[in-house]
């Protein structure tokens, strides 16, 4: 007995199987008859399943005239083909006037329906054309006429196929083309002495129209899908940018918060030794405070481990502040950007700044100068740091003029939106405000106001709204780049 081949051997049931395993039929081993039956069934289903929804042709176009074009063409063809077809059927084929008008209307009027539902319109027109071919079959002068398809019928049919190709699937187009050729062949067999080759002509022309129209439709579908994916990718990129900036700011602020927690721990531990005569309850309370501070500091370090990635090892360095701004300006000047720094005298009178404000001010100046180098090389830039009149806030102002005529081309012409998103997040962190915008002469202005006192944090709704606004801003900045916003990195 011959052994069954591995491909045909059913898989053995496992230990938990309760019955014999059934072999799944493979399309690779499908017989020719079964494959033909399957494809024929698919083509038949395609002929009775129109595309959904029934939107008009070119309905998604942004141009108004293009959306109205299918209606205009279908209306003009209907007004021309109905009387012309009726007259030709009456005068050239000897069809009764009333019956000729009915046939002409059935052959041409469905062109209006083809704008929204081309497949049902095709069924009506194809049946009307076939009935018309049979109606004129016994006409004595038929050998001198076009048969089985009349010239007006061919024109209307080709326009209908174009509308069909711009809407329906590939299976539907193949089925329509095969039926058109098959019926043409059937008409040519009994009436070969009458046929003038219009059936072959229509078969060839219909194939060309369906092929071109189907290719245009698939190309349009691919472009729409690409546009949708680009829109989704841009939105995801903007949100990812926002989250990355927030994570980076959180990592930078770790040192600031860790310092305060360490100070609390040291003060709580040393309080019983520094303050004499404390009752036992107070000593236990200080011990609890110190333990809680240590636990919080450990949790913060674990959180930092989650936020820190492999490429952020350099962020372990001490965080800079306003005392490092002159070094930034000097580096910018060496890069070829004429930059001036102005620090008001009353800034020194503010005393030690909160570490979050000090770090945010430095990073804002750093991002602003980096954007000038990337997007407006050679543009004169002024950096000003001012204190508010009531000594409760700090203002960072960066203004760059238009690049000179001899300036180098921009290093970047498009941006990712990281710069302004990071600035907004830093300003939002300390409860300040950020104003940015182009100047009338072509330059750009950035003003950040950072309060030195504690401010109320925004509500959850306001926080979500600001996050969405920042994401939208990052998306817009990444899409337009420096042509619209010189500070969009």
TrEMBL record:
Gene Ontology annotations for the cellular component aspect, listed alphabetically: membrane
SUPFAM superfamilies: ATPase domain of HSP90 chaperone/DNA topoisomerase II/histidine kinase (SSF55874)
Pfam families assigned to the protein according to its UniProt record, in alphabetical order: HATPase_c, HisKA_3
Coiled coil segments of this chain: 225-252
TM region(s), chain numbering: 69-89, 95-115, 122-142, 148-166, 173-192, 198-216
Enzyme nomenclature, EC number: 2.7.13.3
Catalytic activity: ATP + protein L-histidine = ADP + protein N-phospho-L-histidine
Ranges where the Histidine kinase/HSP90-like ATPase domain occurs: 360-452
All residue ranges annotated as the Signal transduction histidine kinase subgroup 3 dimerisation and phosphoacceptor domain in the record: 245-310
Low complexity bias: start-end ranges: 459-481
GO terms assigned for molecular function: ATP binding; phosphorelay sensor kinase activity; protein dimerization activity
Keywords on record: ATP-binding, Coiled coil, Kinase, Membrane, Nucleotide-binding, Phosphoprotein, Transferase, Transmembrane, Transmembrane helix, Two-component regulatory system
Annotated segments matching region Disordered: 1-22, 458-489
PANTHER family reported in the protein's UniProt record: NITRATE/NITRITE SENSOR PROTEIN NARX-RELATED, NITRATE_NITRITE SENSOR PROTEIN NARQ
The name this protein goes by in its record: histidine kinase
Organism: Streptomyces sparsogenes DSM 40356
């Amino acid at each position: 007995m011959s052994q069954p081949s591995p491909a045909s051997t059913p898989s053995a049931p496992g230990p938990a199987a309760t019955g014999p395993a059934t072999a799944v039929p493979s399309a690779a081993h499908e017989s020719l008859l079964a494959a033909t039956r399957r494809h024929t069934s698919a083509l038949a289903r395609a002929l009775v399943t129109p595309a959904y929804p029934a939107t008009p042709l070119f309905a998604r176009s942004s141009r108004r005239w293009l959306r109205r074009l299918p209606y205009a063409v279908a209306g003009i063809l209907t007004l021309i083909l109905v009387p012309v077809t009726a007259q030709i059927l009456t005068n050239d084929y000897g069809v009764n006037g009333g019956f000729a008008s009915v046939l002409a209307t059935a052959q041409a009027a469905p062109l209006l329906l083809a704008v929204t539902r081309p497949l049902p319109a095709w069924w009506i027109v194809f049946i009307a054309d076939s009935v018309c071919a049979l109606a004129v079959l016994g006409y004595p002068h038929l050998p001198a006429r076009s048969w089985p398809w009349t010239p007006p019928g061919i024109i209307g049919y080709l326009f209908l196929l174009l509308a069909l190709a711009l809407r329906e699937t590939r299976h539907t187009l193949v089925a329509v083309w095969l039926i058109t050729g098959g019926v043409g062949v059937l008409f040519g067999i009994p009436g070969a002495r009458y046929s003038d080759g219009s059936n072959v002509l229509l078969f060839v022309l219909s194939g060309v129209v369906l092929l071109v129209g189907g290719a245009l439709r698939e190309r349009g579908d691919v472009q729409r899908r690409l546009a949708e994916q680009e829109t989704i990718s841009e939105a995801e990129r903007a949100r990812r940018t926002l989250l990355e900036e927030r994570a980076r700011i959180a990592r930078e602020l770790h040192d600031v918060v860790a310092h305060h927690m360490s100070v609390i721990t040291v003060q709580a531990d040393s309080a019983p030794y520094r303050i004499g005569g404390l009752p036992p309850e107070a000593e236990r309370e200080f011990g609890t405070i110190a333990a809680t501070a240590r636990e919080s500091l450990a949790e913060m370090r674990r959180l930092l481990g989650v936020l820190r990635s492999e490429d952020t090892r350099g962020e372990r360095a001490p965080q800079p502040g306003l005392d490092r701004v002159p070094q930034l300006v000097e580096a910018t000047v060496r890069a070829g950007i004429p930059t001036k720094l102005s620090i008001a005298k009353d800034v020194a009178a503010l005393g030690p700044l909160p570490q979050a404000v000090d770090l945010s001010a430095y990073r804002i100046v750093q991002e602003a100068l980096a954007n000038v180098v990337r997007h407006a090389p050679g543009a004169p830039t002024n950096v000003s740091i001012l204190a508010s009149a009531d000594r409760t806030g700090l203002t960072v102002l960066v203004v760059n003029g238009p690049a000179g005529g001899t300036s180098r081309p921009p290093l970047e012409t498009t941006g990712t939106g990281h710069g302004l998103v990071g600035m907004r997040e830093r300003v939002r962190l300390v409860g300040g405000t950020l104003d940015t915008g182009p100047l009338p002469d072509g330059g750009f202005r950035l003003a950040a106001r950072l309060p030195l006192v504690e401010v109320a944090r925004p509500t959850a709704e306001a926080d979500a709204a600001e996050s969405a606004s920042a994401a939208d801003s990052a998306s817009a900045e990444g899409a337009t780049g420096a042509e619209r916003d010189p500070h969009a990195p």
